[in-house]
């Protein structure tokens, strides 16, 4: 029962929370065109998830695809960290007093396409695994209603956690918001990098795969310490909200 709840909950966090953090940062900086790209990425990913889940279930190289998508997501997060850190150096640009002041900045075609593809990747990557898990519980394992409800509840709770950050992060003062955003993205980068490398070693496509697999397994998705990294994401954002101070004015 616990695993039926916990696995989709953690997968949902990795999908929903990263989008929530990106969306909150874009709103805080007034980059309205990029917010539209985020919404478009979410919409397209919802349409793409069933087909992606079907293709993923039929391939015999699941570890390879999981690893490749994980590394690609890590690259996207690294680029987002660079973007946040770069713009944080210019305080007035990073936190305009009104949302429309920053709407033109960082709204070029490359930025729009980049954030769209990033959201599409992170949502589809975890969404297809959640869809496979739920379909397995529903149609193959003949699970009882409690198990199915636990899995659905895990997904719903992860979405609720993401919504809380989008809803209440504007009340956090500027410094705490920036630090929480960068800390979250740094932890996520570590998690995605380890998970991606671990899956690639399972597919035996990296040099010294056996040795690297042994070294990364405790920090992988099913490892002893892997879930700790996921829950650390909640701690960072939750602590920021609990300790928030309202932005002056």
Total number of beta strands: 0
Q: Measured on Cα atoms, how large is the radius of gyration?
A: 19 Å
Number of domains: 1
User: Judging from the principal axes of the Cα atoms, what is the shape?
Assistant: globular
Q: Spans of 5+ residues with little confidence (pLDDT < 50)? A: 96-106
Structural class: mainly alpha
State the separation between the terminal residues, measured CA to CA. 47 Å
Number of helices: 9
The oligomeric state of the chains shown is single chain
Question: What can be said about the biggest beta sheet?
Answer: none
Order of helices and strands: HHHHHHHHH
Percent helix, as a range, is: over 70%
Strand content: under 5%
Task: Report the mean per-residue pLDDT as an integer.
Answer: 84
Summarize the helices and strands and which ones pair or pack.
Elements lengths: L1 H28 L2 H27 L3 H27 L2 H4 L14 H32 L4 H24 L5 H29 L6 H8 L9 H17 L7
Helix pairs in contact: 1-2, 1-5, 1-6, 1-7, 1-9, 2-5, 3-5, 3-7, 5-6, 7-8, 7-9
Question: Would you write up a description of this structure?
Answer:
The protein is mainly α and 249 residues long. The chain has one domain (2-242). 79% of the residues lie in helices and 0% in strands. It has helices at 2-29, 32-58, 62-88, 91-94, 109-140, 145-168, 174-202, 209-216, 226-242. Helix 1 (2-29) runs parallel beside helix 6, helix 1 (2-29) packs across helix 9 (226-242) and helix 7 (174-202) crosses helix 8 (209-216). It is globular.
